[in-house]
Amino acid sequence: MNLQNLKGIGEKNIEYLYKADIYTIEDLVTYYPYRYQVLKPESLETTLPLTTVTINAKVVDVGKVSFIRKNFNSYRFKAESYGHIFNVTIFNRAFIKRNMSVGKEITLIGKYEAKKNSFVAQDIKLLAIMEAKILPLYHVIKGVKSASLNKWILEGINEDILDYIPEKYQKKYRLMPKKEALLQVHNPTDEKKLYVARQRLIYEELFVFMFKIQYLKSLKDKEVGIAKSFEKENIDTFIKNLPFPLTNDQQKAIMDGLSDLKSSKRMNRLLLGDVGSGKTVVGAVLLYANYLAGYQSAFMAPTEILALQHFETIRKMFQKTNVQIDYLVGSMSKKEKKSILEKLKNGKIDILIGTHAILNEHLYFKNLGFIITDEQHRFGVNQRELLTQKGLKPDMLFMSATPIPRTYALTIYGDMDTSLIKEKPMGRKEIITKVVKEKDLKEVLFQVLEAIKRNEQVYVVAPTILENETNDLKDVYLLKEKFSLAFHEKVPIGVLHGKLKKTEKDEVMNDFKLGRSKILISTTVVEVGVDVKDATMMIVFNAERFGLATLHQLRGRVGRSDKQSYCYLICNEEKERLKVLEESNDGFYISEKDFEFRGEGDLFGVKQSGDMTFKIANLKRDYSILLKAKTDVLEFLQSEKYKSSLSFLEIISKIDFTN
Ligand code: ADP
Ligand code: MG
After folding, report:
1. 498 near 474, Cβ under 8 Å?
2. Which superfamily does CATH assign the domain made up of 232-421 to?
3. In angstroms, what is the span from residue 425 Cα to ligand 2's centroid?
4. What is the rounded average pLDDT of the residues 594-619?
5. Which residue ranges make up each domain of the chain?
6. Mean pLDDT value of segment 18-41
7. Which of 121, 116, 115 has the alpha carbon at shortest distance from 56?
8. Which pLDDT value is given to residue 606?
9. Which CATH architecture has domain 432-584?
């Protein structure tokens, strides 16, 4: 049955529901209340001042509405509760008066002030609530009355709603039947049952979610790629020619990658490593192996600045080889692009480095065998799939500098194999981090001067105000003025932000890299990956606006050599949260803390694309249920019979794998 069949639903309503992403009966019945209001009638005498209470009352005098100004009115009337008569005021609900009559029984929700004998109501229900009642509260859908919504939902629940949980687990946990659970959630009768119902629906949502991920993984595990062959000796020589010895974790990650390349199973690996842990070189060795096996590869970064930087570092690492390396970014001229595309098709380029914009170009590789994407968390999951379509089942390595809480690793990256780099390269000193109040900025400026005297460089980051782009630019320029003034215009300062033209950006970045400018003031565009060895100080203004994970990323721009580095987090008021960064340089620990403070919605300072939203589950609150669901899904997928079981086929046919 579809939405059209619901009683009393019109074309217009359906349109409104569509706008709220409700397309099917299933969408409708899983449009869950975001909260519940528990109404327990009390008596006026026992109410505490200024607490919200629920009172049963009768109308004594229907009173009148005053229109105070445009869009603002108040309605006053008299009511009685157990012999006590008092005044009631409610704002902006003039329409309620129409339904009022002397003697009518109503329920008032609001605050009573005994001194004035007046009750300010937030809400008035036009019926008496005799015993405790739980009211579901829904996010308003524009154009749809909440009473109609509730009616349609209840009607929908009576239809055939598919239960995704296999029988085995229904029994194991003695789950409430789905229909009953849905009824309870939308029309609760008692708090305990509501809780049980919610737990059941949460488990189901997480079961389906884990199923998707594990099922995709099981498909990927079976995917046949290209078994590549190369001489280990050549790889060793390449590694020996690197300017530094590899850390154990780097070597281990390389081994993982090499064995993936050799195997006929297609590589689908995540390389997870904290900022500055040295992921690029791991990628480089694998690119070389792929080249030795006779295949082309692509290496993608989220920004042009990064792509260019990778192009330069990778080229250096390959100096002693014959590997042909080139790069492609969106802002190149048509002519330049054309020439690259030509060479790519003819196999004259072995490694192509670029932004993910290259996905949109009509690229034809001669024989693409391997793709690396850097800073994976910047790419949507869908983009991952797009990558897959280029070339013949190329091996894929995803690099991410964002250590994510375990919970997230399981969910975002659950369908991949992972290699972890925890160890920092030798000789690195811990970055000293201090939270500084803005009024103590002088001290920081003094340190900046000292650093510049030592011929070191300084990053300054200004907050980005998404709501107001122009404001954001002003902040950067304001700081530029401040700093210029502080150093009497004697220190060369660069300014970088997303609104600059590409050539301008390159120039600013290049000046900083070459040490021609000593201070770089920017928005968070420097957040990812940029590598300037002499930069030893990071100053973040309005640090309280950023998530810990983002600040940790920013801090990762310094501490890239054996020099002592510093990070100053400037804020107006001290924030407990920021202390975590003073205490720790461990990205994994920090991400867990960030998660605790901020929850799942905003983990990277950017809201995750559609694939991370749940209707009723909350990863943080329901983590133990998630783990249970994962275990059950793995067991279910391994059980011999699952393929023929109806529930499996139904699950497969119903699950939307597109997001
Ligand atoms: P990230 O993992 O953040 O991408 P990079 O790959 O940019 O880190 O490496 C950070 C810096 O550390 C680079 O300048 C790189 O040359 C250097 N580096 C990487 N591995 C080592 C190592 N084993 N020893 C010393 N320096 C290293
Ligand atoms: Mg990097």
Report:
1. no
2. P-loop containing nucleotide triphosphate hydrolases (3.40.50.300)
3. 14
4. 58
5. 41-131, 232-421, 432-584
6. 89
7. 121
8. 35
9. 3-Layer(aba) Sandwich (3.40)
